[in-house]
Structure formats: C-alpha cells, structure tokens
C-alpha cells in the first residue's frame, strides 16, 4: 500500500513512521509527505529520508474549500491507499473527509471521546484526571470524533505540566502509530458504518 503522510510541525510522529517503514518487513511505502507550513521541520525529516514532499500553504487560500481542493490534488497525484495525519493541524472539510473515507487516519493526544480539539494535556491536568493518553482513529466528518482504532494510556504524576505530559504521551504515539499503520496496510483494520472492524470482527 502507498502511504501519504500529512504534518504541520515538528514531525516526531512522521519520524517514527519513517523508521518503521524502513524495517524490511514493513507492508507499506511512504510515497510522499505533505505540509501546510513551508517551514515545518517535518519536511526536512522527509527529505532526509529521500521521501518526496509537497507544500500546500493554507495562508495562500481564501477559503477552507479552496485549500482542501488544492491539498486533494497534491495527494491524488501520489495515488495513495492510506492518508496518515501526523500532527496535521488543519480541520478538513466534509468533502475531503468523504473522498477518503476509510483511508484517513489521525492521532489525537487524548483518550477520546475525552478532550477533542486543542490543549488536551492542560485540560486533563485541570480536570484532575489520573489517566491521560492518545488515540488513533479514523477521520470522519465529526472533528476528532471518528471511530477509535487504538489507544495508549499514560499515568498523570504529581508535578506534571502540559509539557512533561505531552512528552510522555508523544512517546506512546511513536510506539502506537506505526503498529496501527501496519495493521491498515495489512488490511486487518477496516472502517464500518460507525465502528472499526479488526480481522473482520467488531472492535
Ligand atoms: C502529537 O502529539 C499529535 O497527537 C498532535 O500533535 C502532536 C504532533 O507532534 N496532534 P509531531 O509533529 O508528530 O511531533
């Protein structure tokens, strides 16, 4: 399977996926990395690994629709089977999400359905939660609301800040995302109407 990865910033999840894809038995190929920010460090990580890159700068488009159409054109040029959002910080339009239904994954730094949207680590701290974590989910029309495929937990410790917590959550993401992408490439995970099938069974 052909994988296109979209990122906006540092790209540490992208890095984890690149490393996994370099293992000899990895079942997919990262054919391109796209960014909405020309300065994103993720672009350098991709170039370093000899992966093709493209930039669709959202500040150059008047509407979300125009941006998404331009993004879609770039993605489709690479004929992907799977589109992996890895720290991609733009909300995608309904048309975009529908076009790639079942092929679009995201990582969100909370134990969904808790804390959709931004500032998840601070919100978990403010709520006094004992457990926090990250979720990998299919992207559907509902923001951070698509069916969850896998989650990893971290314990919140006394003295944690949003930064220390983010670091531990991201370490989990780097382990979990490559596993989930592998499952998708192997055809083990599928999106049903509003649920996930794992090896043909309801998850
Ligand atoms: C990750 O924690 C991800 O869950 C969130 O943004 C962060 C991206 O980090 N959406 P990176 O760009 O992969 O380093």
UniProtKB/TrEMBL annotation:
Its EC number is 2.1.2.2. The active site is at residue 108. Pathway: Purine metabolism; IMP biosynthesis via de novo pathway; N(2)-formyl-N(1)-(5-phospho-D-ribosyl)glycinamide from N(1)-(5-phospho-D-ribosyl)glycinamide (10-formyl THF route): step 1/1. The keyword Transferase applies. PROSITE patterns: GART (PS00373). The record marks 144 as: Raises pKa of active site His. SUPFAM superfamilies: Formyltransferase. Residues 2-180 form the Formyl transferase N-terminal domain. It catalyses: N(1)-(5-phospho-beta-D-ribosyl)glycinamide + (6R)-10-formyltetrahydrofolate = N(2)-formyl-N(1)-(5-phospho-beta-D-ribosyl)glycinamide + (6S)-5,6,7,8-tetrahydrofolate + H(+). Keywords: Purine biosynthesis, Transferase. GO terms for molecular function: phosphoribosylglycinamide formyltransferase activity. InterPro entries: Formyl_transf_N, Formyl_transf_N_sf, GART, GART_AS. Coiled coil: none annotated. N(1)-(5-phospho-beta-D-ribosyl)glycinamide binds at residues 11-13. (6R)-10-formyltetrahydrofolate binds at residues 64, 89-92, 106. It holds the Pfam family Formyl_trans_N. Catalyzes the transfer of a formyl group from 10-formyltetrahydrofolate to 5-phospho-ribosyl-glycinamide (GAR), producing 5-phospho-ribosyl-N-formylglycinamide (FGAR) and tetrahydrofolate. Belongs to the GART family. HAMAP family: PurN (MF_01930). This is Phosphoribosylglycinamide formyltransferase. It comes from Marinobacter salinisoli.
């Amino acid at each position: 399977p052909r994988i296109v990865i979209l990122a906006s910033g540092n790209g540490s999840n992208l890095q984890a996926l690149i490393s996994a894809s370099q293992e000899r038995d990895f079942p997919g190929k990262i054919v391109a990395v796209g960014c909405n920010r020309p300065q994103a460090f993720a672009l350098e990580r991709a170039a370093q690994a000899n992966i093709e890159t493209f930039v669709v700068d959202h500040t150059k488009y008047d509407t979300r629709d125009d941006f998404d159409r331009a993004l879609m054109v770039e993605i489709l040029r690479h004929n992907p089977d799977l589109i992996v959002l890895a720290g991609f910080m733009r909300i995608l339009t309904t048309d975009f999400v529908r076009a790639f239904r079942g092929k679009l994954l995201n990582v969100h730094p909370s134990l969904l359905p808790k804390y959709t949207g931004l500032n998840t680590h601070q919100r978990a701290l403010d709520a006094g939660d004992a457990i926090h974590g990250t979720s990998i989910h299919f992207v559907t029309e509902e923001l951070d609301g698509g069916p969850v495929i896998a989650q990893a937990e971290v314990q919140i410790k006394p003295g944690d800040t949003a930064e220390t917590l983010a670091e531990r959550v991201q370490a989990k993401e780097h382990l979990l995302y490559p596993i989930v992408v592998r499952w998708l490439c192997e055809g083990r995970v599928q999106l049903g109407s509003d649920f996930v099938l794992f090896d043909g069974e309801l998850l």
